[in-house]
TrEMBL record:
Any one Gene Ontology molecular-function term assigned to this protein's record: metal ion binding
Predominant localisation class: membrane
Originating species: Microbacterium radiodurans
Subcellular location: Membrane
GO CC terms in record: membrane
Transmembrane segments annotated in the record for this chain: 27-50, 70-94, 106-129
Keyword Acetylation: no
Designated name of the protein: Succinate dehydrogenase hydrophobic membrane anchor subunit
Keywords from the named record: Heme, Iron, Membrane, Metal-binding, Transmembrane, Transmembrane helix
Signal sequence, start to end: none
Amino acid sequence: MTADTLAAPRSPQVRKKGANLEKWGWVYMRASGVLLVVLIFGHLFVNLMLGEGIKGIDFAFVAGKFASPFWQWWDVLMLWLALIHGANGMRTIVNDYVTNATARKVLVWALWLSAGLLILLGTLVVFTFDPCLGVTADSMLWETCQG
């Protein structure tokens, strides 16, 4: 039997030793999907339903949320789960449709590299956000940042 043919449905399957990464990827997609639904709807509810709704979302609103460790971790968890979930989904699509092994490997590496870079940058933004950075005397935030 060649690599291009499928085994008979009831034939015994030989599995490689070690961790079954495809199984854990499948489990991750289900678990992260459920958690993302909770995180995203919580995010939307707080941002759009409480307070003034969409009219209340401005720089001060974001600065106030990022001043709280609870909301920092909420947003970072949402960011991490969403990016890893999306990259894993794209990896599955690449594995399904890209037949050239070298191209598949390059694309999967590019996916994980870009997801990792976005996770790193997004995490840095959330935890190092300073609304007073670069504020000058002619800014609306000058008085707030002086206190």
